[in-house]
Design goal:
This protein is of the alpha+beta class. The protein has two domains: about 200 residues, Enolpyruvate transferase domain (UDP-n-acetylglucosamine1-carboxyvinyl-transferase, Chain, Alpha-beta prism), CATH 3.65.10.10; about 200 residues, Enolpyruvate transferase domain (UDP-n-acetylglucosamine1-carboxyvinyl-transferase, Chain). The strands form six sheets. A four-stranded mixed beta sheet has the order 2-3-1-11, covered by helices on one side. A four-stranded mixed beta sheet has the order 7-8-10-9, with helices on one face. The chain has a four-stranded mixed beta sheet with strand order 15-16-18-17, covered by helices on one side.
């Protein structure tokens, strides 16, 4: 959605989920003068008459991904004013890599009063191609700088770039608009700037984290589940860990996976890493499964420093988890018990739903606003699989709980 700002014509995105974050991003784009029209899972974005370069704080503060607009805005208009972002409270996630990269591309960048001001340096009409080395393979910085470089003058090379499938998908979208990008999916991306983008019609890739979550659903409830459409290559690390624990994962055709569970799971160790390592966005869901596995599992969270807040909630359900720093030791227990719990972030909310599905008795989960940021109608999909859960509103609580019962 942010990348569509690069195009002075109408673009269409397909396979767009109905998510709170998608709606928020739409509001941010609309505040800049972008026209959006939604029909089913298609989203038409018209940035031809983009009117201003300043995004409103009250919108950006709710969505981390909103900061992605700074690169396309700067490349297209020559100026951008974007507040420092908000989103899930799972760690610092500073924007210094974005800022240093934009400066290398020839931008003056100032941060003052929580606002990032960026403009072209020295009377240049366009950003200037450059060689950029990222201290860390940040997905956000890689995507921001790749988008900015598409309209720059000359060639840009981003080294130690993020290799996530979403980076490749964004590069493919930009290429469909006329960008010249090579090497996306490797640690060095080369972008040869073009003067202008053109319209395109592009389909979004399946969400590998939603797919991974449903794979764990099958395992933790000992249910055989088929998933489609998925891209199995994007799930290599998740599949490998499930197989280590005793789950059978079978590929049926190009884009279908079948999960065949067992009645006993083995403990395993996980270290979250940038792609192609094990994804931090699957850590919480696997922790839920590990609580019911035989033996001690060790989780090392190396990507975000504050992403183990779901441990206390899982322990309320009878799990045996100890935390020291960024390491969690999960000792398997025979069963979990239903309890009232609170979701602390997006993936934690999914993990608590999974734990509730496997627990004896009733589990009520508060904080579903986190869940709705990244999962489209999760409870409806689970109900279709036979899960007994419902969403209820409580007038006394600003955070509507989901009630999950086995």
């Amino acid at each position: 959605m942010a990348g569509a700002i690069l195009c002075p014509e109408e673009c269409r995105l397909r396979n767009v989920p109905q998510l709170v974050d998608v709606a928020r991003m739409g509001e941010i784009l609309a505040s800049l003068g972008v026209k959006l029209e939604r029909q089913g899972d298609s989203l038409t974005i018209d940035a031809s008459s983009i009117g201003q370069s300043k995004a409103p704080y009250e919108l950006v503060s709710q969505l981390r991904a909103s900061f992605f607009i700074i690169g396309p805005l700067l490349a297209r208009l020559g100026v951008a004013r974007v507040p420092l972002p908000g989103g899930c409270a799972i760690g610092a996630r500073p924007v210094d890599l974005h800022v240093r990269g934009l400066q290398t591309l020839g931008a003056d960048v100032q941060i003052d009063g929580g606002m990032v001001y960026a403009s072209l340096r020295g009377g240049n009409k366009r950003l200037q191609g450059a060689k950029i080395y990222l201290d860390y393979p940040s997905v956000g910085a890689t995507e921001t700088l790749m988008m900015a470089a598409t309209l720059a003058e000359g060639e840009t090379v981003i080294e130690n770039a993020a290799q996530e499938p979403e980076v490749v998908a964004l590069a493919n979208f930009c290429r469909a608009m006329g960008a010249r990008i090579r090497g996306a999916g490797t640690n060095a991306i080369t972008i040869s700037g073009v003067p202008k983008m053109h319209t395109t019609d592009y389909s979004i890739i399946p969400d590998r984290v939603e797919a991974g979550t449903f794979m764990v659903v099958g395992a933790i409830t000992q249910s055989e589940i088929s998933l489609s459409p998925v891209i199995p290559d994007h799930l290599t690390a998740v599949i490998a860990k499930l197989q280590e624990m005793g789950v059978r994962v079978m590929q049926e055709g190009m884009n279908t996976l079948r999960i065949i569970p067992t009645d006993r799971y083995r403990a395993t160790d996980i270290e979250t890493l940038p792609y192609p390592g094990f994804p931090t966005d699957m850590q919480a869901q696997f922790m839920a499964l590990m609580t019911l596995s035989e033996g001690d599992s060790v989780i090392s969270e190396t990507v975000f420093e504050n992403r183990l807040r779901h441990v206390a909630e899982l322990n309320r359900m009878g799990a045996d988890i100890r935390v020291k720093g960024n390491i969690a030791i999960v000792r398997g227990v025979p069963m979990l018990s239903g309890a009232p719990v609170v979701a602390t972030d997006l993936r934690a909310s999914a993990a608590l739903v999974l734990a509730g599905l496997a627990a004896r008795g009733k589990t009520s989960i508060q904080g579903l606003h986190h869940l709705d940021r990244g999962y489209e109608q999760l409870e409806t999909k689970l109900q279709k699989l036979g899960a007994r859960l419902q969403r209820v509103s409580e007038a006394t609580d600003s955070l509507p709980p989901s009630v999950v019962s086995k």
